[in-house]
Hints:
By secondary structure, this protein is mostly helical. It has two domains: 1-102, Rna Polymerase Sigma Factor, Chain: A; 108-187, Arc Repressor Mutant, subunit A. It has helices spanning 3-12, 16-38, 41-57, 68-86, 93-99, 111-129, 133-144, 149-156, 160-185. Helix 6 (111-129) packs across helix 9.
Amino acid sequence: MNDDIRLIDETLAGDRAAFGQLVRKYQGRLFNTMLHVVSVREEAEDVVQEALVQAFLKLETFQRRSALYTWLYRIAFNVSVSRRRRKRVETSIDHHQAMTGDEPVSTDDGPGQRVLRQEQVDQVREALDTLSEQHRAILVLREIEGCNYDDIADILDLPVGTVRSRLHRARLQLRDQLQQVLREDLP
């Protein structure tokens, strides 16, 4: 029996520590993925926390046809969409700092390379932020998480053909946005 299934069964039997093991196993990966989806560290933390609480409360509805992470991602993505709908646009300095927040930097690079890499990360993040939630989610799942088309279709509850066409359109939109961002940065 799969370790996740064993932990799910133990949780459903009343062992809350078993769910804690699942949280420790998936929380970091889920946070990293949501950070790419929502772009703000604090918002990603809130989304993941809310998603994990919902997962605990709805664990008996997990049908075990897909991987647990797929189910958790779907909950987290839906939470992020709901929160975005409820939230008004922020324009504070703190929000701006969170949007351009800290990225891990290789210690092998010199200062010039770190600055260049951070500029590139900021440009990609800026371009990603202009995409619709649907296109951003598909790009994050495919290009950052490395999910295959079937997993993306399962996570987003879409036919595989729709995933392929949206991914194609998302890549084109991202390319166009990156070209626009790069043109704005030229003197």
